[in-house]
């Protein structure tokens, strides 16, 4: 066995990955509030965080860069908000995170986890609309991912404005 083989076998996966955390979120719902604060808190604690516009190089195509960042992350924090399920990109990220069996830390922002799990409430129309556009089979992957993540114990934020967020609460 060569020396480089020995190093790669004994190095934990997190040390070989580019990102500690991939943030998945619906920009129009959360970019300027909880996502921004969470990113700043994680970053200030030396956690390597991929945030869509922070982690991509100029000229990168959105989809391949995001999917690559998911693969190159140890965990994912998924901030699920009212309009999350109306975005095929958000749902594609979520499905890929689940398929890769990443550690998922869900944040339910002004939504109920049971609505995510069952695709009810604010998610029902978005998912149904995507079924018409993208097809039932494709959306089935997304539904399965939402069901899985909706069943994970996470953090539920119902307040209109989050005044402080710290790692001690995470």
TrEMBL record:
The keyword NAD applies. The keyword NAD applies. Keywords: NAD. InterPro entries: TIR_dom, Toll_tir_struct_dom_sf. PROSITE patterns: TIR. This is Disease resistance protein (TIR-NBS-LRR class). It comes from Forsythia ovata. Residues 17-160 form the TIR domain. Pfam families: TIR.
